[in-house]
Amino acid sequence: MKELLKEKLEKQFTTVQFEVIEQFDELTLKFDKSAIVNVCAFLKDEDGLKFNLCEDVTAIDWATRKNRFTIVYHIFSMENKFRLCLKVDVDESECSVESVSSIWKAANWAEREAYDMYGITFLNHPDLRRMYMPEDFEYHPLRKEFPLMGIPGTLPLPKK
Amino acid sequence: MGLESKLINDGFFTTTVDALAAWARESSVWPMPMGISCCAIEMMASGDPKYDISRFGSEVMRFTPRQCDLMIVAGTVTYKMAHVVKKIFDQMPEPKWVIAMGACTSTGGMYRSYNVVQGIDQFLPVDIYAAGCPPRPENLLNALMQIQEKIGKTRVKDFPDLQIVRYDTKQAELSLSKN
User: Fold this and answer.
1) How many folded domains does chain B comprise?
2) A147 contacts B114? CB cut-off 8 A
3) Residue B163 placed within a domain
4) Could you read off the pLDDT of A88-104 as tens digits, one per residue?
5) From the list B113, B114, B123, which residue is nearest A157 (CB)?
């Protein structure tokens, strides 16, 4: 399966550089964020691959690295019983990536959560609102600079 | 209370309206089950035949706040949920009491975090804190008994803000006939 995946991707995307990482018995592909929609659509629809389940879309905040955020997609192929992890880097200055919710509907809420917690904008998302925090909240709690106990006065309580 | 034996012998007994009202109140505390997370499971368990909250006259868990005297806040209250809890509490008629059930509601518990209210006494007047994570049903019943003790000691003068609404039938009929 791993060989088939590499072969098909390299054949289809000649301009995209794929970095292949194997860890924890799982295959990870790392590539540039501009190719995310095309790669995902290919992985979902190509015969023999059929990654039809998007399990999670989340992000990692590296705080001090050059590309501050890494967006992580966990996708699963029911047909091949094979799990794949996709990673794309996003920098803080250009904190956006194309949404994959047009490919997997399940990505809709997962991307909203990633937006809420990290402040990464998902372009062309149908409904990019906050998932957990109040809609007028200004911060993104899972960013490393956000204090554990929050910023006093930003979340109002009802009067006694 | 041994009321029956007294009634057989004398046929009457003397008390004050205040004491009678307090006794009636404490013996039928109707809880509003504000079950937000895992404490709610123990709250449900306290209603089953083994623990049987109806022994204390509190089996009538009302899911509308308008018919309740006691709010059992059972579970982690987040900042977002706090507004809902307060809104429901405001709809309960006076006089009303609050049990903060479990560690989360009392102090924030293990959720020392930006999103959980560190104790609901920041926005609600809590009467009894039940310790535990979650508290066992016996513990909730103990909290209920303490609430009953507290209610039993109340007198009319403790509720100066209570408004007694008298329904004047004659006046109502008059206004109806005018319309």
Assistant:
1) 1
2) yes
3) yes
4) 999 988 889 999 999 99
5) B123
